[in-house]
Design goal:
Blueprint lengths: L11 H15 L6 H12 L4 E4 L6 H11 E2 L2 E5 L6 H5 E6 L4 E6 L6 E5 L6 H5 L2 H6 L1 E4 L2 E4 L5 E6 L12 H4 L4 E4 L5 H12 L14 E2 H11 L6 H16 L3 E3 L3 H17 L7 H12 L4 E2 L1 H5 L4 H11 L5
Parallel strand pairs: 1-9, 1-10, 2-11, 3-6, 6-9
Antiparallel strand pairs: 4-5, 7-8, 12-13
Helix pairs in contact: 2-11, 10-11, 11-12, 12-14
Length: 324
């Protein structure tokens, strides 16, 4: 057993770079340490992120800041009810001078794409992201255009305002590695936010924020995730958690095998952020609700009882015996 806990992966460079990254985020975002941790976990695990929260809790600011701290091409799209798929993907136009058609790329062609208020666009526009989120390519007029290895989508949505919004379909939600609910700050954090405003230090201009990581460095760190040790007993532990979502009477729609893989990758990335090259059951317990909460649907009876999705997930996890 001692050999299992020997260091197999050199995480020294990674730890230094990501600690610097988190410090720079903390200089602008007050509090939200757990949200930042899970956001970095998702990006490190090579997944797309859905940020959900009421207006004014810095969802968009966090997404833009993370994108700014990575030296990669960043584009932002504000989803609106009149947005068309071609506004995102691009369109083919006829070039009069060359007498030929040419493809004008839309904002989806980037390294990091921020989709603000993703649930404000109609279903056909949301569906335009299906292929690029899953296969990291876009097919237009029979031609396929590949995205880079780094391609990441960060989307935001407001859970309380329903007028003029379109609920994301299950197939779309399943393409997000994690759903992160951004909550209200604590009293102390809110006092600190007001103190910064009163002192005139409202926020550091994002244009002045310098990148901490290059795209190539982050890709290298993503490869390290695959080297993090995860015992076979923990693979079964993940599978049994997923199985609970399929047999529980409180759940109408359980999680698919994609969720199992997502928990596996996320737990490895989170272990790295904690400075370890091996996964523990606690890592799995921590990331599982973020991976599962947008992938399962509660039974009508559970909803009538007022049970939240995260509460149900944690109860299901507690039913599974932790490997020793």
């Amino acid at each position: 057993m001692e050999e299992i806990f020997e260091s197999r992966v050199n995480l020294e460079e990674f730890a230094q770079r990501f600690e610097h990254l988190k410090e720079n985020i903390g200089n602008i975002i007050v509090g939200q340490e757990e949200t930042v941790d899970i956001m970095l976990t998702a990006i490190l695990a090579n997944g797309h992120v859905l940020l959900e929260g009421v207006p004014g809790v810095a969802k968009t600011l966090l997404a833009r800041l993370v994108a700014r701290l990575v030296d990669a091409q960043f584009k932002r799209v504000q989803f609106t009810p009149d947005l068309m798929p071609s506004d995102i993907l691009g369109t083919t136009v006829f070039n009069m001078q060359k007498s030929e058609f040419s493809f004008h790329r839309g904002p989806v062609f980037s390294d990091i794409l921020l989709v603000d208020e993703i649930n404000r666009a109609p279903a056909k526009t949301q569906a335009a992201l299906f292929e690029v989120m899953e296969e990291r390519q876009v097919t237009i007029d029979g031609s396929s255009y590949e995205m880079g290895d780094f391609y990441t989508v960060i989307a935001t949505q407001n859970p309380v305002e329903q007028e003029g919004t379109y609920k994301l379909p299950e197939a779309q939600l399943d393409r997000f590695l994690m759903k992160i609910t951004v909550g209200y700050p604590s009293v102390d954090d809110e006092v600190q936010i007001m103190e910064r405003h009163q002192a005139g230090n409202i926020s550091v201009k994002l244009e002045n924020v310098q990148p901490i990581l290059t795209k190539d460095e982050l890709l290298k760190f993503r490869k390290l995730v695959g080297e993090i040790y995860l015992d076979s007993s923990l693979l079964r532990y993940i599978a049994e958690i997923i199985q609970q979502t399929r047999v529980s009477k409180s759940v109408f729609l359980g999680a698919s095998p994609r969720a199992s893989i997502a928990i596996m990758q996320s737990s490895k990335a989170y272990a790295m952020l904690q400075g370890r090259d091996f996964v523990t059951p606690e890592d799995i317990k921590f990331v599982a609700p973020y991976v599962l909460q947008h992938r399962i649907q509660l039974d009508a009876e559970a909803e009538m009882e007022g049970l939240g999705v995260v509460t149900v997930i944690k109860r299901l996890i507690d039913k599974v015996e932790v490997p020793k």
